[in-house]
Every structure is written in structure tokens, then in C-alpha cells.
Design a protein that fits this description.
This protein is mainly β. It has 2 domains: 11-222, Glycoside hydrolase, family 65, N-terminal domain (Beta-galactosidase, Chain A, domain 5, Distorted Sandwich), CATH 2.70.98.40; 224-262, no CATH class. Helix content is 12%, strand content 48%. It contains 3 helices and 21 strands. Strands 7, 8, 11, 12, 15, 16, 17, 20 and 21 form a 9-stranded antiparallel β-sheet that branches. Strands 1-2-3-4-14 form a 5-stranded antiparallel β-sheet. A hairpin with a 2-residue loop joins strand 1 (11-16) and strand 2 (19-24). It starts with 10 loop residues before the first strand and ends in an 11-residue tail after the last helix.
Amino acid sequence: MPTKIAVNAGQIVINDGSTFLVTASDGSIDENLPQGFFVRDTRLISYYELSINRHRLPVLASSIITHHSALYQYTNPEFSTLNGILPQDSLLVSVRRDIFNGMHEDLDITNRHTESVVFQVMLAIRCDFADIFQVKSSQLLPRGEILTTWKDGVLTNEYHNKSFHRGLIITPTHTSSSPRYANGRLIFDVALALRENWHLCINFTALADGDVLEPKHTCMEEFVSEAGEQRDNFLKAATQMKSSNADIASYYQQALVDMGALRIKVEKNGKQ
């Protein structure tokens, strides 16, 4: 039987052209590791942590859906709430991320407890706007100026270094909870009855080279981007292989898909 091969099993990588996301298998982003949300060779999101009442969530499973989409599923540890102790495994939490110019995130929480629950969802997000080569070499040199503003429910981080400009606009939408921003965290108050579901969309809009790169704004809708069309054209023209060994055929087909996803349009960028 052929040996099963796993590449970078401890992380999830998705991309659309030169826009890509690298996270740990639990969906978090560590600014001290070569992880983050990258647009045009700049890391826009350098830190990401999802928590409920400040408790990190145990991951149940995570997987790549397509080259530009990933799904993460969690439960909860035991913790205290305003209604008392919430037992572990009382909540089912799902996060789906889709890359298309910017990034779209869907967050769903379902109450599986026998009683109603009240808690706070917290998202800690930081941006360092580091050059991709500095991130890879772990030689992060602070330079330029970062300005963070919170206005009308929208969080904006902008980076300026002489003529070089990058930015990230974080917009929570389609939720019953009004967002707040404090201590570097987006905060949402959530109250759920038994089997009730809470939903949140977040649009991450990238600002680069004077362009506004908006994500897909609809939830869970399939789409084909320019990079996706290039990938599909590559797959149509690629040499196909048939084998009596199903694993070999599967490895070859996956290799073609990966090669197609790496077809990146090269553009000239400024200096950071």
C-alpha cells in the first residue's frame, strides 16, 4: 500500500492568485510565525484569535474546501457565564473563509446546551503590514506608521511609509449583535436559546497600490475569480493520467490542482 503523504499538516493554506492566507490548523494566526493574510507581498493580518468569554476554542476539524476556501469547526471548553457554568461541548462553532481579492469570513455558533446561554464572542485581529520576505526570514523591522480607527462599526488599519500605502478595512455585517471595539478586540454580545444559531459575516477589504480589493459579499456562494479561471484553463490543458492505483491517480490530480492554484499574475509593486 502506498505511503500516505501529508504536507504542512499543521497549517491551512488557501489562495486566489497572489492573495493568500496561511493559518494554524485551528485557524489562528501567530505574528511570530510565517502565517497571515497576504496581499501583493504584504502581510495585512499578522494576528488572529477567536475566543468566547476570553477562552480559546478546541478545534474539532479543519480542512481546505477549494484552493480559495477553508472550513474550521470548534466546540467550547467549560467556562463561566452570566447564567452559570457552561459545560464543554455545548456549542458548535464553524468558521468559513473565502479568498477573493479580499477575504470573506462566515462565523456560525449553535447552542446545543439544554438551556439558553449568554456569552461574548471576541476577535483579536492585528496588522503589521510586513514584507513577505521579512516574514519568511523572521526579520521583522518596524518602519512606517500604522493608524487604526473605529467608526460606525467599521475597523480600519492603514499603513504609510513615504509613498508606500497598504490598508485593511474590517466590516462586520449580517449579525444580530452590534459590534464593539476595545483593547484590540471586536466584541459581540450573544444570547442563544436551545438549538438557536448566531451568524456573523466579516468582510476584509484590502487597500493596495490605490486599489480597493473587496471580497465576495455573499455567504457560502460559489464563485470563480480571474485566478480561478486561469486554474481551470490550466487543468483543461494539462496532461491527464489514468492508473490502476487509485492513490497514484489521486496524488497526480491533486498535484495538477495545486499547480493550477499557484498560477499568479505578476505585478510591479512599490517598496515598503
